[in-house]
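Researcher: We're reviewing a set of sequences before deciding which ones to prioritize for further study. For each one, I'd like a predicted 3D structure that I can look through quickly. This is Transposase. If possible, include the structure in token form so it fits the rest of the review sheet.
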Amino acid sequence: MVLKKVMNCAKCNSSNSIRKGLRNNKQRFYCKDCKRCYQSEYVYNAYKPETNNFIKSLLKESCGVRSIGRILHISKNTVLSRMLKISKQIKIPYFNKFGCEFNV
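Model: Here's the predicted structure for Transposase, in token form for your review sheet.
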């Protein structure tokens, strides 16, 4: 009996993936649904899925870009690019309260 190690895709969370070789002695997988390659575990902290949440929480605590890079052990340029990606996901809130204006 052959056991297959099934990994869920980090992008689309699909289990329709196959093993796709080794890189630096880490198993790589290929998702057939979204056609992306991913690894089971990463060495560089910027590739970990929880990095964006850490960046958001550190920005709320008013940490600077270089200090976030030092804390998370990633490049300041990576922090800046992730901040831009996070900021594009923010939607403008809709306020409709009897014609009042809200200034921030």
